Amino acid sequence: MDTRKALITALAGGSMLGGVALGAAFSAGSSVNAATTPTSTSSNRADASASPGVFVSNEDPAHEATESAEREAQENAGQRPTVP
Model's pTM, two decimal places? Predict the structure, then answer.
């Protein structure tokens, strides 16, 4: 292999590796932030020891009085409510 082909091969391989490294660095940072950002505060949870992102139904009597039947059914099924 002559010097020019070796240089082109090394540059192409290096740029591919650099692109992969930059892509991994940028995508890893954004997915970590999205996965660990809590969507509710611990004061709204019935169980404050639950990890962020895990839905825990709020069974406080004052909260329950304002809920619709559809929302309560979703909570009882372990789903994050999508109705008011």
Answer: 0.34
Mean pLDDT across the chain? 75
Q: What is the CA radius of gyration of the chain?
A: 25
CA distance 1 to 45: 66
Asked whether 25 and 33 are in contact (CB, 8 A), the reply is: no
Per residue in 33-57, pLDDT (tens digit) is 555 555 554 455 455 455 566 777 7
Chain position carrying tokens 């082909």: 5
The answer to whether the beta carbons of residues 46 and 58 sit under 8 Å apart is yes
| Residue 31, number of CB atoms within 10 A of its CB | 10
Q: How far apart are CA 41 and CA 28, in angstroms?
A: 25
